[in-house]
Structures are given as structure tokens and as C-alpha cells.
Amino acid sequence: MLRDVGSRDTEFIACIKFIRQKILEIAGVTNKKFSCIPMQGSGTFAVDASFQTVLPKEGARALVIENGAYGKRMVKICEAAGIACDVQSFREDRQVEPEVIDDALSGRTHYDLVAVVHSETSSGVINPVTEVGNIVKSRSPDSIFLVDAISSFGAVPLDLEASKIDVFISSANKCLQGVPGFAFVVARNELIDKCKGNSRTLSLDLYDQVKQLDKTSQFRFTPPTHSMLAFKQSLEEFEAEGGFAGRSKRYQENRAVLRQGMRELGFKELLDEKIAGYIISSYLYPKDPNFDFMDFYNRLNEKDLVIYPGKVLDIDCFRIGTIGDLHPEDMRILLKAIREVLADMNISVPVKN
């Protein structure tokens, strides 16, 4: 990232080709059936682009399955784009329930698209995408099945064909450990080829984007050159670590060390272990009069350790991530610091719940 490369330069064109092909390989699919479509911006930009591109401007209806902030964000995308949208909600500390989705799809309403989040990082829950996808295609074979895999792709198993996925979205700066700047959509070619003229906006048109990429291996508009050069390096590091299996193994080891250490400190997890992922973990606030989250957060921050506030609407909790270039030893350093901060705040260990 410490050097410039022109967006039309042959080196950068080769970088784009490499990234598009490598993403398909990691996803376990080929360019005969799927296309990788990089898109400037955050993961939300790519989710927005997907809804706007694959659904026609008039008459379409979507079903959004949500159990957290990122599912709710898809609802907002539909509302902003004028897409008719029904919502099937679940508690934020629970998984999506396939049998409920089966009931929702058994009525008279036809949905042109059904969407769900794979790893809902507002809580850390992993949703049963494969079961949901098979229900969608069983009940409504012509419905598009869209999956937000932004925080899971590259570390949490997801078989696109077995899950009947038509469109999935991820981002450079999550499990593949790039830097922010762009996201990508992997979509079935036969679907994208039908989407000309659907997009409500120029810049978020995935159809135009992929046709330009296929023709010239260039973006339509200025690409995030530095982010993409960094991502090429991150993909090489991903392979050096052992690919999907190696990355997943390290994240699971991080999660195991964190889980055991937080349990010893007395913290209670928001989620049942059966539905919790190893991307991010949510912990309930201790029931101690001396506990103040911002004080707790700031004290850890002063030690160069950054955690996340909770994103669950009605439960006081905070989150700790276990992805990125973090290792079990980093988890042990964090746990030691948490113990020290609790002592400084006059909170006894194990904490009260």
C-alpha cells in the first residue's frame, strides 16, 4: 500500500483478474456458473447493489429473514430502494428457525427474493443457511436466494451449491483479512445475465459492473487501487496459512481460549454454545454496581486493546472479535488485561451475573 499503481495499468488489471478468480476458488465454484463482482465501498454497498440489480424496478417483493442489526439493514435497503419487503423476525439471541421459514413460504405470497445473514455479528449467531436455502428452493424454485456472508466467508463453511445460493456478498476486510475499501458479490451467471436495466442507480449496477470487468478487467469508475493491492497480498497469506481450513482452525482456537478465559472470570455469554460462531462473541454486563461499560472499554483501550459495544437492542452486552491477524496468545493478553481492569474498577472475580 506504500506505492501507487494506475487503475488502468497492466499490473493492476492482473491484480483484478487474480482476485476475481481466487474468490471463486475459495467459494468452491467456477466461472462457468458464477461471477465474482468486486464493488467499491463497504459490504453494505455490495448488499445494496445486489438488491437493486437482481430485482426489477417494478412489481418485485422480497422476504428478509432477520435476527439482528444486519438483517434489519437489508430491510432498510429495500425501503430506500422502493422494493416491497416482508420481514420474518427472530430474537437476536436465537438462530433463524427453518420450520418458521417453511411456514412463511407456504402461503399465497410469492417472493422474488429471500435474504438472510449467515453470520449475524450483532450477536455472533450463525444461521442455518443451507437448511433455509433448500426450503426456499423447495417452496419457490424461481425465488432468488441471497446470503450476506460478509463476516463469515473464508472461515465458516458455506457450500453454495448445497445451500442453493444464487447471490452471496462478502467483504475484503473480514475473514480474508484485507483492508476496507471494497466488497464483492458472487452471483450465478444465468441470474446476472437477466438483470440489465434493473438497477435504480448507475454506480451500484452489478450488471454493468460485471460486463465491464469481463470485457476489460477494469472497473467502470475509479477503483480502490491500494485496497485491492493489499487484498491480493492477503489472499496469498490466506493460502500460506492453509486456506479455508487453516484460517478457520486459528479462529476456532482463538474463540476456545477466549471462551474458557471469560468463563473463569465469571462472564456469561449471550448465546447458547450450540448456535454461537467463532467470529465474534457477546458477553452480558456483570451485575456489579461498579461496572460501567465505557469505563471498562476506555481502560482496555488505554492498553491498546479494543472491544466492541453490544449491538443487541434490549440486552446489555459487549462483543469481542476473534478474527483478523489475532492468535491464541493475543486472547491470553486480552484476558489478563480484563482481569487487571476489573481489579482497578473494584469488581470482584468471578463477576456476578
Automatic annotation (TrEMBL):
List N6-(pyridoxal phosphate)lysine occurrences by residue: K174
Q: A single GO BP annotation from the record?
A: organic phosphonate catabolic process
Highest rank taxon of the organism: Eukaryota
* Catalysis performed (reactions): glyoxylate + L-alanine = glycine + pyruvate; (2-aminoethyl)phosphonate + pyruvate = phosphonoacetaldehyde + L-alanine
Where does the chain bind substrate?
R319
Q: Which UniProt keywords apply?
A: Aminotransferase, Pyridoxal phosphate, Pyruvate, Transferase
Q: Domain Aminotransferase class V spans what residues?
A: 3-272
Q: Write down the InterPro entries for this protein, in alphabetical order.
A: Aminotrans_V_dom, NH2EtPonate_pyrv_transaminase, PyrdxlP-dep_Trfase, PyrdxlP-dep_Trfase_major, PyrdxlP-dep_Trfase_small, SP_NH2Trfase/AEP_transaminase
**Which terms does the record give in the GO molecular function aspect?**
2-aminoethylphosphonate-pyruvate transaminase activity; alanine-glyoxylate transaminase activity
The cofactor(s) it depends on are: pyridoxal 5'-phosphate
What's the Enzyme Commission number for this chain? 2.6.1.44
EC supergroup of this enzyme: transferase
Q: Would you identify the family this protein belongs to, as annotated?
A: Belongs to the class-V pyridoxal-phosphate-dependent aminotransferase family.
Q: Which PANTHER family match?
A: 2-AMINOETHYLPHOSPHONATE--PYRUVATE TRANSAMINASE (PTHR42778:SF1)
Q: What is this protein called?
A: Alanine--glyoxylate aminotransferase
Q: What is the lineage of its organism?
A: Eukaryota, Metazoa, Spiralia, Lophotrochozoa, Mollusca
